[in-house]
Structures are given as structure tokens and as C-alpha cells.
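Mods, move this if it's the wrong board.
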Amino acid sequence: MARHTRLVAHVGLVAAIALLASGCGGRSTAAELHHLALSVSDLPSGWSAAPIKGPKVTTSTPCLSSVKSKGLTYDVEAFTQGGAIPTFVEVLAVGAELDRTWKGLTAALATCRSATIDLAGTKAESTVRRIAFPPLGDSSSASAWAFTFHGVRIGFDLVLFRVGKYGGYVTYSDLGVPRPATVKAFAQAAAAKVAHGGSVAPIPAVSVVSAPVQTAETTLGAVAYRTIGSGPPLVLITGFSGTMEGWDRRLVDALAEHHRVVLLDNAGIGETAALPKLTVDAMADQTSALLAALGIRRADVLGWSMGSMIAQALAVLHPAQVRRLVLCASFPGDGTTVRPAQSAIDALKSGDPAKVMSDLFPADQTNAQNTYLAALSSWPPTPTVPADVLSAQSHAVDVWWAGTDPAGKKTTAIAAATLVADGGQDPLDPVANSRALAKLIPHAQLVLYPNAAHAFLFQEATFTARVKAFLG
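Not the wrong board. C-alpha cells:
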């Protein structure tokens, strides 16, 4: 799995660079162009310069075969976020033949419909289509490329532009379809730096991965959190042994398009203070204290697994702070929980990535699994969860399942509009639990995804749309 993740990242990076060899001839570096190109200091936090050497890559693009260039000097800059993907490449060129070459390249790209990418003998067919894009510099055009590698869908947008005597293009590659707002931010910054002679405002955080870890001092100790987006507040609460870095950035970034999303580390993890007695209710109280410290009077709350228990307790103990609830892979707290098989629990606690993935995705969903792993590789290193915290969390979950948690016994008192969701093949949470919970909470909605498991929310693209519609 790790090998596939690295290969996916590399092909996303060099597929765009390989286009240069097809259309623009040899490569040389000029200090002038290097000064005008974007650098790490211009990019959001978490981005770093990426080597372009690696497995041999070739790109067959017949539409560019007629484009030839001589006498151009150009510079290539490549970057990646975290350890894999997304990636960003910028190419700048200057020379006597620039006008002819760039006109030819623009015309040729307009006719492109397909290309073949060969990475160390593994071929991937890419579709190519023109896309609308805000004007850049003196002239610009854009196209979207998409291909599948080791079952992972990758897309990259290529934006060609001219600024004075300089020609350039940028490519932004990501899992699935790159977010238009993100590509726009990177491309506009590239063109602006050329136009302003090497000066440009840094690109702001366009993904939760680039949002810094902050610490709020609350009445129940420090709480570490990240936040991104603007709009109505939405708090995401993770589950057993989880950290903020366990969220799939694709889900978080999509929700941040219309919400101020807040992620937090639960008690005793990272920079979040431990609690004297760690229970589901105590973690809910600490989440409540974070909302108060951030000045958030009322929020929508999405909890996953143990995080959904915390979300229920928050709605019971602090009802005025919760507007709407989304409970993912959740459990009733009234003593009727159908416990998962011990083998599933052991797999989650094993620390073995393959065993953990067997809980999160069905066996026939390896593409979704590999895509999720590639998404996680964008995050910085994950803080270690102390053994005593894991033990305390495990006990807190057992208390909830047994129906002896105080808030868990009051689920029927939840007044917030609630959406209950899970995968139909979840080994950690038998589907009967979601059905029971949806009946306990007044007027709750229930949605199940048949060919999904505990990580259904990262596998099923329609779930994100469902959440957006539910939150309104």
C-alpha cells in the first residue's frame, strides 16, 4: 500500500513535467526565471520542493507532436504537499522563439483529447479536455487531464499563460478532480509573481492540511485544533485512537467551502490536555469548553465512531451549543448496542495498517483504500497516542456500549436535527446499531451505504453531498 501511494504521488508529479519534453525541447535553468517562479516560501504551510527524478516516465501526446522549440531557456519548479499528493509544477520560459512556441502549444493543447503516460512500464491512459478558467496575464488557456493509476483516480489541471516576454504553465495534480478554487489560487499566484518582478503575497491555506495546529485555553485545559473555511461553524470529532490527521482532507476541504470547519484532538492526545477521568461525557464537556473558548455559541457537529458518541453526549449535556448532528458509524448508549466481533476490535487496536484497513474498507474496495491512504500522506507526522489514553478510551467506549454512561442513557432527549449514517459492511459497527439509534433520536434520518464499511464517509462521494444538503 505504501509503495502504491508513493508511485501515485510520483506519477502525479512527473506526468506534467513530461509534457515539457513533448512540447518544449531541452531544459536549462536561468537565475532570472528561477527568481520569477514560485518558491516554497510562497506556498501554504506543509508544501516542500520535490525532486523530479524517479522512475522513468514518458508521456505520449500526439496532439503536441507538431510543436517544436529551439532557443528557449526555461526553469522547472516542482512541489508536493506532505509525502505524496497533491503536487504542483511550474514551468517558465523565455527566448526569441517564445511567441511562436506558445501560440503553437496553445493551439495544440486545444485539440488534445487523450495521452498515454508510461511510468516504469505501467501505462495509464489519460483523457484531456479544455476547461474554463479566469484569465491570467496577457493570455491563458486551461485543460483538465485525468487518469487512473493502481486504481487511484488522479486529475491535474494544466494552465498555460503569457506575461510580457515570459511564457509559463502550471499543473496542479490531486486525487480525483482538483478543487477549482485551489488551482485558481496557485495559478494566479504564479502569473502575479512574474508580473510583479518576483514579488507575490503567499498563497493562503487552501486545504485543512496547511491549516496550523492551534491551542485554545479552555476551562478544561488546553485543546489543540485546526480550523479552515468560513461560514456556519462545523465541528468534526474523531474516534478511538484518532487524531486530527486521520481525517480525509477531501471531505474536510469540501465541507469548508461553506462552513468554518474545526477539527480537534481529543483529551490526552497531541497538545490537548488530559482529563482527570476520561469518559465520553468528559470528552463532550471538553469539546463544549473549546466551543466556548473559540466564541462559537452554536455549531453543527459531525462525529465519527467514538467521536459520534462524544457528539451525542455533547447534544445531551450542552443542547444549546448543537444545531445539527451527523453521527457516522455510531452506537446507541442505552445498553442495546450490538457489539462488534472481538476480531474486528483486535484488528483496530493491532497497529497493523493492513488489519486496520480491513475494518475501514470492504475487501473489494482496494481502490478506495489506496485513495484514502494517499490522502492521509498529505498530513504532517501524526502525534503518538499514549497507551494510557488508549486504555481509557477503550473503557469509555465499553461504558457507553453497556448503557451505563449518563448521557448515553438520555439519547431520546436529543432535540437537534440528526443524520445517522454508516456502511452496510461495517465490521466495527453492526448495522443494527445505526437502525436502533435512528429510532431513538426523534425524527432522525438514516442513510446506509451497502458496499462500504467503517470509513464509508471517505469512500462514498455522495455522502459529502448528503451532509452539505442536511446542514443547509
